[in-house]
Amino acid sequence: MPSNYSGIKITIIGSGTCVPSLKRSSCSVLMETGGSKLLFDSGPGTMRRLLEADTEIIDLSYLFYSHFHPDHTGELATILFAMKYSKWNRTKKYLKIIAGKGFNTFFQNLKSVYGDWIEIGSDTMDIVELDNQSFDLLEPGNFKVDFAPVEHNQESIAYKITSSGGQSAVYSGDTDYSENLITLAKDVDVFICESAFPDDLKVKGHLTPSEAGKIAALAGVHKLVLTHFYPECDKADIEKECRKTYSGPLVLAEDLMKFEID
After folding, report:
1. pTM (2 decimals)?
2. Domain ranges of the chain
3. 127 pLDDT exceeds 80?
4. 8-257: what CATH class?
């Protein structure tokens, strides 16, 4: 990908959950813009799926975490451990990890288990811990990151990426119905939103298809991509349920599905 690419390329790395599946890895999304590869969450199965998407972990410039549950962070330790492999370690590729409030403590606790095996050095890794307030991160001439707290865990965050060409994508992470998410996703080109359970199996802290559709409709998104499907979704008509509240372009995510926003 050229460093002056001003659009956003999106790959669904994992469209599933904590439930083991041969079809769906745990939730993870790769975005590429301005010469950078951004990975959002890294649950079990992420590294293998990245390889299937022609991406090695050493290609990543940023890791964004929506929250700390194992199905979203489970391969953080293995990613960092793999980066100590001599072939990659010599490249001194710089990795920035961005996450919500409490991540530094989370990471220190992880190191209390794995020790130096996941320490790749301050010269090659940096952690940015965000608080639960609106805030912008700006990469000059590259891309912009906005975020907002959502309704799942205390640290839960949704992210919006805006490329230098003005294209935009939002990744919801796990959330219940959220006014903040509506605001963040306003007029976005692609809205990647969790839809964990069918309408009749609503679980607190997660969205159903009709709830995700309502958020997308109120935000006026240009395309809605539903993801983070528990097995119960395979037995329901997720598209029909979403159409109760949303009439725009709709995609049900599958692992390794790709989109481009030019």
Report:
1. 0.94
2. 8-257
3. yes
4. alpha beta
